[in-house]
Structure formats: structure tokens, C-alpha cells
Amino acid sequence: GSAMPVYGQDRANSIPSIGKGSYEITIFTDYFCAPCRRLNTKSETLLKELLSSNHVKVTFVDVPISKATPVYVKYFLYAANADAGINTLLSVRKKLYDAAQEKNIQKEKDLAGYMKDNKIALKPMDERAVFPLLSAKIRDHKIKNTPTYVIKSPENEIKKFVGDEAIWNELVKLKQRLVTTRQ
Questions:
Q1: HSE, side-chain direction, 13 A CA sphere, residue 169
Q2: Rounded-to-integer distance, Cα 12 and Cα 2, Å
Q3: Are 53 and 177 spatial neighbours (Cβ–Cβ below 8 Å)?
Q4: What are the distances in angstroms from CA 51 to CA 19, 29, 153?
Q5: CA distances from 65 to 108, 121, 144 (A)
Q6: Does the pLDDT of residue 2 top 50, yes or no?
Q7: Is 55 within 8 Å of 18 (Cβ atoms)?
Q8: Mean local confidence (pLDDT), 32-49
């Protein structure tokens, strides 16, 4: 038999991220935050473009501002463990925002049913192993509001952007920098 703990056997026993670029974008959001949802919807195509440049890594950190958020985080981690592709991650996040803000789902059994009804693949894992990592990121970056994006450049310059408009403007600037670099 294996002495490896159950969560060690799963792909996602760390914070969900995608890409391997020299620019690192850490996304701090809460599913019950209306500006987070707006930004999630607005930035989906732009994030895919940034990731396709192969110069960007995106990490998702859910901030438990709402009492029900930890249950949503659990199901996001299960979905990421089943398929950590960008299309899946963004689609699942959209569904979780809908569950929080349109359906106002507060209980785990109701969220589990919603995920099943929407045919979202889940692969359970020990999410408790990831929660301290998420908390450390929130603490290290002194996150007080959502949405907040922290962008680390290849030169290790770290900048924090708060609010959907400020974040959107910075993502557009980053895309322009990457296009200029490629030419």
C-alpha cells in the first residue's frame, strides 16, 4: 500500500494556476462580490489572450469574504482537480458566480446539486491542504478588498490593483506590452 496521503495523489494539491510565463497574475476574488463577477465576465477573453502569449501565469485565490465562500472554494478546487485547463477553470468560475449571485446558494448540498445539474466534473481531494496556502497568499499580499489583482513582472516588480476598472486597465496595458515585446 501507499503511504502517500490522499491529497498527494491529486493533481491540484496546490493553488490552481495556469500558464508558466514570466508575468505572474494572482487573482483575488470572492464569488459573492458583484465587481468580481463583472471583471470575471469582461476579462475572460483577455486572460485567454494573455495566457496564449506564453508569457503569463495566472493563479486563482478565492478570498472568503462571504460566510459561504469556503464551500465555493472547495468545489472550485474539486473542479480544478478534475480538469485544470483554462477553459474549464473560467467556465467553472462563471458558474460559481452565477450560483452565488443569481441563485444565492448558501448550503453545500445545494451547491453540490447545482454543480451536478450543470454537469461540472469534480474530483474530490483534501481541500484542507490548500486552504492554508490560500490564506498565506491573502495575508502576504495584505488583501483587504475584492477584486484585487497582484501582478509580478519578470523584473520582480510587484504591483497591486484594486477594483474592476483599475484591474481591467492594467490587463489591457499588459497585453500591449506583450504585443510590443513580440515585435
A1: 7
A2: 19
A3: no
A4: 6, 19, 14
A5: 17, 26, 9
A6: no
A7: no
A8: 96
Mean predicted confidence (pLDDT) in 7-33: 82
The residue with cell 474549464 is 88
Give the three-class secondary structure for 153.
coil
| Residue 52, CA atoms < 13 Å, CB-side half-sphere | 9
User: What residue has cell string 448540498?
Assistant: 109
Beta-bridged to residue 159, according to DSSP, are 151
Q: What percent of the chain has pLDDT over 70?
A: 92
Calculate the average pLDDT of the chain.
91
CA torsion angle for 99, 102, 36, 94 (degrees, to 10)? 50
Q: Is the pTM of this model over 0.85?
A: yes
Intra-chain end-to-end CA distance of the chain, in Å: 54
Q: Which three cell numbers stand for residue 80?
A: 480544478
Residue pair 117/129 in contact (Cβ under 8 Å)? The answer is no
- Read off the amino acid at residue 5: P
Question: Do 91 and 38 contact (CB within 8 A), yes or no?
Answer: no
Task: Give the pLDDT confidence score for residue 67 in this predicted structure.
Answer: 95
